[in-house]
Amino acid sequence: MIGYVTIGTNDHQRAGEFYDAVLAILGASRAFEAENFIAWSLKSDGPKVCLTKPYDGNTATVGNGMMIGLTAQSADMVDAVHRKALELGAKDKGAPGPRGGGRYYIGYFRDLDGNKLCAIHFE
């Protein structure tokens, strides 16, 4: 259903390095890139997480209520993604653990630009 999500950044280089490390844990790599745009994916025709400086030239800002969930294959992978994000300077917004009556395992963080993400494993 989702083809891609796009995250805004004000520091393309720094954010690119952050997402290279975090998304690699999930098995994703750069699918394509341009001067101010990078897309990561598990496979070339699969959904993508994209990073860009705003095309209108204005400062990238955080969407209130917007969050991106990154699917992990295990609770251990959720822990690894959350840990790596924090090591790289992300802010903790909820330590990994069971949620939803144990239906899923999830850890929340805000990236270097303040965008909210989570890593989630559906039990």
Write down the overall geometry. Answer: globular
Order of helices and strands: EHEEEEHEEE
CATH domain class: Alpha Beta
Our estimate of the beta-strand percent is 35-45%
How many helices does DSSP assign? 2
Which bin fits the share of residues in helices?
10-25%
Runs with pLDDT <50, length 5+?
Answer: none
* Radius of gyration of CA atoms, rounded to a whole number: 14 Å
SSE layout and pairing:
Layout: E1 4-8, H1 12-25, E2 29-34, E3 37-41, E4 48-52, E5 67-71, H2 75-87, E6 91-99, E7 104-110, E8 116-122
Parallel strand pairs: 1-4, 5-8
Antiparallel strand pairs: 2-3, 3-4, 6-7, 7-8
Helix pairs in contact: 1-2
Summarize the structure.
The protein is α/β, with parallel strands linked by helices. It is built from two helices and eight strands; from the N terminus they run βαββββαβββ. The protein has helices at residues 12-25, 75-87; strands spanning 4-8, 29-34, 37-41, 48-52, 67-71, 91-99, 104-110, 116-122.
Q: What would you say this structure looks like, in words?
A:
The protein has 123 residues and is of the alpha/beta class. It has a single domain, classed as 2,3-Dihydroxybiphenyl 1,2-Dioxygenase, domain 1, CATH 3.10.180. The chain is built from 2 helices and 8 strands. It has helices spanning 12-25, 75-87; strands at residues 4-8, 29-34, 37-41, 48-52, 67-71, 91-99, 104-110, 116-122. The strands form 2 sheets. The protein has a 4-stranded mixed sheet with strand order 1-4-3-2, with helices on one face. Strands 5-8-7-6 form a 4-stranded mixed sheet. Helix 1 (12-25) runs antiparallel to helix 2 (75-87). It is globular, with a radius of gyration of 14 Å.
